[in-house]
Amino acid sequence: MPPTALKSSGIVLQPELPICQTDLPLDWYQSEFKPYAEEYLALPDRKPSTVLPWLDGYVKPAQAHFGDALMLVAHFYMGGEIVKLVERYGGSVADSYQLALQAQRHPEKKVIVESAVHFMAEAIAILAHADQQVWITNPKAGCTMEMLAKDWMVLPVADQLIERYGDDLVVVAYMNTGGRLKALAGRTGGAVCTSSNAHKVVKWALAQQKKVFFVPDQHLGRNTARKLGLDLSRVVAFPDPQLGRGALRVDEKCVPGGLAALDRAQMILWGSFCGVHTVFKPEHVHYWRERGYQVLVHPESKLEVVELADGEGSTNFLWDAVMNAPRGAKLAIGTEGHFVRNAREQGKLRGVEIVHLADIPDPAYQSIGCGCATMSRNDPPHLAGMLDLLRKGVAPDANRVLAGDMVDETTGVRDRLDERERAGMIADARASLERMIAITEAK
Predict the structure, then answer these.
(1) Which of 189, 318, 349, 407 has its CA 20 to 30 A from that of 339?
(2) What are the pLDDT digits (tens) for 373-391?
(3) Residue 337 near residue 370 (C-beta atoms within 8 A)
(4) Could you tell me if residue 393 is left (phi over 0), alpha (psi between -120 and 50 degrees) or otherwise beta?
């Protein structure tokens, strides 16, 4: 079997290199997916020359059945080789901004199957046309940052802030939130943002003389304020939401400096964070720079890391840096580990050396080349099973994604809005997404 060139990322899937997706225990699969998992776990190895013929037996019949109505999508951060597999079957791999637009910009695609996290699938569903269906290969695939910013945690705090500041408060919701928080942004006249356009959206909000409640990532919020040249003493963050679990009171104890600091603030940050990006430390930057590497990081990293780095930006920014680096360049990249592994493969083809910022070959450091564990819950059996079950017309409802769905990433239990509630939520959430699109794509 010849190598398969992938159209979006340019990665080549070599037939004898092992697929580095970690096998999940059988009891992690929904009952409908267990037969596919049993077959996959019985394969003699994880080489593409073994896995791809098995996948072909399920994916190709589904593609023939649905034709051009089927769309496969995945995010850059997908675990293992799912990015490569989705691309191999003609799917689209992108950052969260481009993924959110897939249904809206491709009305001919009626069945959209997403291999990424739930909030991304839900963003697609919010902007989808009425005759489009969105499915996720594993509904338990989540995001640590979003898990620390569920609606039942954030909305009571937002209500207290709105009571205090009224129309002077606007919510900017990072894409890494559920639809119910995107709807909160819409109700306050705010917008969604991504890591690539957060500075544009926050600048737009501040230009309206509004106080910004930035949800959920405190580090992206703080780095955005820095990028805009704001006085960081006027940027305050609520405490780690794990401490209160939704019981936070907006009072003199809620932030350093109390209510006076809140009143003076231009930006109020929810206290959530990404468990992947907060492992990076200044000493990681110093280590690699002393060895001649250019350091590039994602803006979900801590402020002190971003300030030291040679550049910061979204997954698209980081990928473009790899693709455009001159031969002989050396890059240390601070972001999700699976992304860096894919970038390293691409760098080898171009004569560019890529390392993971926190993966230091020195016993004085703890090597933590981290990947997003929750995204890694999508694997070949989930992809094969989802497509085969859809083709047979027996796909489990748990994998259908509707706007407003809230899923417990541990148990898989879903809270689904009724039709009236969903319609209102979609109107508000879509407004916030469309504001983001208008701000981002303004000439």
Answers:
(1) 407
(2) 666 678 889 999 999 999 9
(3) yes
(4) left
Lowest-confidence segment of 139-148, 154-163, 272-281, 355-364 by average pLDDT? 139-148
Q: How many domains does the chain have?
A: 3
The whole-angstrom separation of Cα 324 and Cα 311 is: 14
Domain encompassing residue 296:
277-356
Q: Which two tokens stand for residue 433?
A: 């997404």
Helix (H) or strand (E) holding 4: strand 4-5
Look up residue 43 and give its amino acid: L
For residue 243, give the amino acid letter: L
- 363 falls within a domain: no
Confidence (pTM): 0.87
If asked whether residues 90 and 102 sit together in one domain, one would say yes
127 within some domain = yes
**209 torsion bin: left (phi>0), alpha (psi -120 to 50), beta (else):** left
In order, the DSSP letters of 137-162 are S-TT---HHHHTS-HHHHHHHHHHHH
Residue pair 167/187 in contact by the 8 Å Cβ criterion: no
Does residue 92 lie in a domain region?
yes
Q: Which helix (H) or strand (E) holds 297?
A: strand 294-297
Same domain, yes or no, for 255 and 166?
yes
